[in-house]
Amino acid sequence: MTVIDVHTHVFPRLSRDEGRVLADRGEPWLRVGRGGTGTMMCGDEEFRPVGEALWDPARRLADMDAAGVDVQAVSSTPLMFGYAAEPSRAADWCDLVNERILAFCAGAPDRLLPLCQVPLQDPALACEVATRAAAAGHRGVHIGNHVGDRNLDDEGITAFLAHCARIGLPVLVHPWDMLGADRMRGHMLPWLVGMPAETQLSILGLMLSGAFERLPRSLRLCFCHGGGSFAFLLGRADNAWRRRDLVRASSPRPPSEYVDRFHVDSAVFDPRALRLLVDVMGVERVMLGTDYPFPLGEEEPGAAIRACPGLGDADRARLLGGNAEAFFARPAPVPAGAGAAVAGTAP
User: Fold this and answer.
1) In which pathway does it act (predicted)?
2) Enclosing H/E stretch for 173
């Protein structure tokens, strides 16, 4: 049984000068200390203390061996997205970050799958960066769930998603820059409350706006953190769609009929919650995700999957690795001239 963790993060060793590729103030960089300690920085401000597994592939591989994880999909830390920057600077920054992620994974290409990042504030430029990254060896793209007040159903962002479908690049969506932060002070409430809410917002936005009707079915899309609160509240959304024309104005089908258009990771931490998630999504659309190496991640990778009631051995094998193998499989070459449309029809 192959164990594949689709939700892990990296912050390559980037100096402050390199961070200034993105911004002159508040630039993201990594301050590395002694004894395997470090700090993610925003200019002069300390953002979060971190350990060497975030930048040292040898330590990461040792942790994977100890935890029984065969493969990780490696994505940048959301602090690095750079969506507020001027697009051309953000593109240069993404090229630099993507190059470092490739280098991080290069020593164990069969175990570390690199995911690129893109300047999503400029969807056309994001398409260019994603195409370069895919050609260089990246196996997917990691994006935030919104850019300012533009959600994933924004016309430009859906065009980018359609481009990813066309070039066969899977998309991992991570919540970030959480709404209501001014009311969630302390106790890590932005992570505990804001992240699930952001993810729920993104999924329902794609459904109710009709975006899934416009996006190609070949798009491979995965939402982190178990899809947030989506599975638990799907019945509420379906009920609203049936009862109010305002809810269904742009969506010809109820939300529950779009669950076959995306995947979620398993980072819900409770076997009972995971059972509901599998019941809602289907066993073929849930993949192991831990949020490694951050402290709110699943400490024992796959523990909730192994303890989930009602799953047989074959189902557990799919959640632990089989679904991810299919999700990240390299697509067959596209014939020249095929797939010219960016968005507009869903095959």
Assistant:
1) Secondary metabolite metabolism; quinolate metabolism
2) strand 171-174
Cβ contacts of residue 278 below 8 Å, gap of 6+?
286, 308, 311, 315, 319
CA distances from 338 to 73, 167, 291, 334, 346 (A): 29, 11, 37, 7, 15
Task: Please list the pLDDT of the chain residue by residue as tens digits (347 residues).
Answer: 899 999 999 999 999 999 999 999 999 999 998 888 999 999 999 998 999 999 999 999 999 999 999 999 999 999 999 999 999 999 999 999 999 999 999 999 999 999 999 999 999 999 999 999 999 999 999 999 999 999 999 999 999 999 999 999 999 999 988 788 888 888 888 888 888 999 999 999 999 999 999 999 999 999 999 999 999 999 999 999 999 888 888 899 999 999 999 999 999 999 999 999 999 999 999 999 999 999 888 999 999 999 999 999 999 999 999 999 999 998 665 554 544 344 333 33
- pTM (predicted TM-score): 0.92
Q: Which domains does the chain have, with CATH numbers?
A: 4-11+52-327 (3.20.20.140)
In single-letter form, the type of residue at position 317 comes to A
Give the three-class secondary structure for 324. helix
